[in-house]
Design brief:
The chain contains two helices and two strands, in the order ββαα. With about 80 residues, the protein is of the alpha+beta class. Strand 1 and strand 2 form a beta hairpin. It is flat, with a radius of gyration of 34 Å. The mean pLDDT is about 85.
């Protein structure tokens, strides 16, 4: 199918002779549905035990903050700021 426009207006529409009708197209769509059991989505306890243990990497030490320590006023008037 070829559609030629002139701006927003359809100028020419060329449709091949062998284009199926809507009913022919719908009939041609495959309605194949898989048969048989659905694939297993969970591991058994034995399968979980057979998996290798995850490799633990060293966690880097916490880095001290840089810059001046700032003490902000409390958001609640009843709370006193920590010094």
């Amino acid at each position: 199918m070829v559609a030629i426009f002139d701006g927003d207006k359809l100028n020419t529409l060329t449709v091949p002779e062998d284009l199926p009708t809507e009913n022919e197209f719908v009939a041609a769509i495959s309605t194949f549905k898989p048969t048989g059991a659905a694939p297993k989505l969970a591991l058994t306890d034995e399968e979980r035990k057979a998996l290798p243990l995850p490799v633990r990497t060293a966690v880097p030490a916490a880095v001290e903050g840089i810059g001046p320590l700032r003490i902000y006023p409390p958001l609640d008037a009843k709370t006193e700021p920590k010094s």
